[in-house]
Amino acid sequence: MIHFVLHEAKDTVAVAVVEGITAGTDLTAWIMDDDKQIPIKALQDIPIGHKIALKDMAVGDTVWKYGIDMGKVVERWEDDADLLKLGPGALLHGLLDVVVDGHFETVQLMDDAIESLEDGLFDETAVTRQIQQRTYRVRKELVQMRRVILPMREVVNEIQHHRAEGNGHRSELDGWYADLYDHVLRASEWTESLRDMVTTVFETNLSLQEARLNTVMKKLTGWAAIIAVPTAVTGWFGQNVPYPGFARPAGLYASAFVIILMAGTLYVVFKRRNWL
């Protein structure tokens, strides 16, 4: 039976969803995002709808709920104490402002990760497989980030429309919400630009691999041509017919000279063309 519910594993508080919870009762909490259950124990009676701390917390510790640092939210509300006089809309603005600021921090970290990938593309000591793995991981994390950031535009936009229809007149909070919406748009546009950047990194990596493969093929072809020379010469001199130097040391020296001369010539030509 589920007694408490929390949204994310890092939340430090959960909400009671059943009645009759008494002190000393062994309880089960459900983590919604992970669809996972964890055991907890009630230290006092808890009415339905009230919260329970999932760990020991001292004065000043940060409270996490819905995956949000509620301590920062409180700080933001305290920083704009005069704004709180405007009612619940100010509280909602403070909450959304902290969420959007968290989006900016996450986007910045993703930007740094993509720049690191770009620097590693042309690093001669970099391992191609590691770059591929990092690129796919960044692409996956970027998709997850877009699913969180992009819907925020509709959320803030809907709140603005609701406030405009409900109030019928301008409010001091309109400017604050307009600024919040501008931040949301900037985060969304930044996310879209990162999507293009990671796509470019992926395509560039593939192009570099093809270029390296062509270089390797040219080198293999060059060495094959060089090796073909002694094979051809020894095959010719190995025929069972008389030829200049047949059955004499001079014939061996002549064939060795021809091999060295022709192979050396091919090596110099290929090296000048950067095939080797």
CATH architecture of the largest domain: Up-down Bundle
- Strand order in space, largest sheet: 4-3-1-2-5
Count of distinct structural domains: 3
Helix proportion range: 55-70%
Q: What distance separates the N and C termini?
A: 71 Å
Query: What is Rg?
Result: 35 Å
Run of helices and strands? EEEEEEEHHHHHH
Write up this protein.
This protein has helices at 70-79, 88-121, 128-149, 151-167, 172-237, 249-272; strands at 4-6, 13-16, 26-31, 36-41, 51-53, 64-65, 68-69. By secondary structure, the chain is of the alpha+beta class. It has 3 domains: 4-58, no CATH class; 77-213, Methane Monooxygenase Hydroxylase, Chain G, domain 1; 215-272. A hairpin with a 6-residue loop joins strand 1 (4-6) and strand 2. Helix 2 (88-121) packs parallel to helix 5 and helix 3 (128-149) runs antiparallel to helix 5. The mean pLDDT is 79.
Short description:
The protein has 276 residues and is of the alpha+beta class.
Topology:
Blueprint: E1 4-6, E2 13-16, E3 26-31, E4 36-41, E5 51-53, E6 64-65, E7 68-69, H1 70-79, H2 88-121, H3 128-149, H4 151-167, H5 172-237, H6 249-272
Parallel strand pairs: 1-3
Antiparallel strand pairs: 1-2, 2-5, 3-4, 6-7
Helix pairs in contact: 1-2, 2-3, 2-5, 3-5, 4-5, 5-6
Question: Could you list some keywords that capture this structure?
Answer:
two-stranded antiparallel ribbon; single chain; 63% helix; 3 domains; Methane Monooxygenase Hydroxylase, Chain G, domain 1; five-stranded mixed sheet; 276 residues; 6 helices; alpha+beta
